[in-house]
Write a structure and sequence with these properties.
Layout: E1 4-5, E2 12-13, H1 16-26, H2 39-53, E3 56-60, E4 73-75, H3 79-82, H4 87-93, E5 101-105, H5 134-144, H6 146-157, H7 168-177, H8 180-188, H9 197-205, E6 213-217, E7 233-237, H10 238-306
Antiparallel strand pairs: 1-2, 3-4, 3-5, 6-7
InterPro entries: HNH (IPR002711), HNH_nuc (IPR003615)
Organism: Etheostoma spectabile (orangethroat darter)
Keywords: ATP-binding, Helicase, Hydrolase, Nucleotide-binding
């Protein structure tokens, strides 16, 4: 059987899923049902870290021609003074997500990594000290940027569908560079010809990369595979991606039905137990009533005897 070399890990395995399981055993656990990490989530994590360290936070933006002469970092007062009662307000008052990232700085002014929150190098500008290592930078960008994620998967797999073997990215380049009059014939002779007529017409009129192939999560996002490393990502052509998405939707529907059925069964079981306890309760009440009546008769006899 042809073996697959998982990217970055250098692990040989028979399938991506098997390789991912082997990697998971050796890597720190990570599970998320969100596809990407947002800048608001990064900001909240930075605020929490700064508060624990007794430090502050700064806004880190990418320097360009207009900002090189001024600091890209905006420091706030120490976390112990400003984060206790105003942490939510601080996040809301920060510039929009286009402005950059909120980064924690410890009490000694050392920036904390946006990914792992460990100390970073103080050499270089603020934008260059966002991460403590290349690995953290790589993982963070994969978790936060769809564009970066696609570029890394393309670099690793060359746009080849991991299910059917279609050279989807090469096909995109050929269709894009071909005269519009020739694009229909090019697509009709490929695996993508089974797509809807509307989608094919759009690919002929204005072909874009995302029409030909997608990045797929081997472990689905809904199962905790979101915000993952490169090892959980694979290239799928649009046809194979649609089929896999449909299959996953079916599986999720079955899961929801199973959960609902279990809840109904649990409710029915509880109701049965309640009804089953009614005769027992009635029996106990009858015995109690009988015992009470017997006691009353006995007391009456004693009273009559005393007279």
């Amino acid at each position: 059987m042809k073996q697959k070399l998982l990217r970055r890990s250098g692990l040989l395995c028979h399938s991506p899923t098997l390789g991912l399981q082997q990697l998971a055993a050796s890597q720190r656990p990570h599970s998320s049902t969100k596809r990407y990490i947002s800048k608001d989530e990064v900001a909240q994590a930075s605020l929490s870290k700064a508060q624990r360290e007794g430090g502050s936070v700064r806004l880190v933006t990418k320097e360009n021609f207009f900002t090189k002469r001024r600091s890209a970092a905006s420091l706030t007062p120490p976390a112990s003074e400003s984060l206790d009662e105003k942490s939510c307000k601080t996040v809301e008052e920060r510039p929009s997500s286009e402005s950059g990232y909120l980064q924690a700085v410890d009490s000694e002014g050392v920036p904390m990594c946006l990914s792992c929150h460990q100390s970073c190098s103080t050499t270089g500008g603020a934008w260059d000290t966002r991460f403590c290592s290349h690995r953290c930078q790589e993982e963070f960008q994969l978790r936060s940027s769809q564009t970066y994620m696609r570029s890394r998967v393309l670099e690793a797999e060359q746009g080849i569908c991991q299910h059917c073997g279609l050279h989807a990215h090469d096909l995109f380049l050929k269709v894009r560079d071909a005269p519009p009059s020739q694009r229909k014939d090019m697509l009709e002779s490929t695996w993508l010809a089974q797509l809807s007529l509307k989608q094919l017409n759009e690919m002929i009129r204005a072909p874009v990369e995302g029409d030909f192939w997608q990045v797929d999560h081997i472990r689905p996002v809904y199962s905790g595979g979101g915000q993952c490393s490169l090892d959980n990502l694979q290239t799928l052509c649009t046809v194979c991606h649609k089929a896999r998405t449909a299959q996953q939707a079916k599986e999720r529907s079955q899961m929801r039905k199973s959960v609902a059925a279990s809840k109904v069964a649990s409710d029915i079981s509880s109701a049965i137990n309640v009804f089953a306890s009614v005769p027992l309760l009635q029996s106990r009440l009858n015995r109690l009533h009988s015992n009470t009546a017997h006691s009353e008769r006995h007391m009456a006899k004693i009273s009559w005897a005393n007279i």
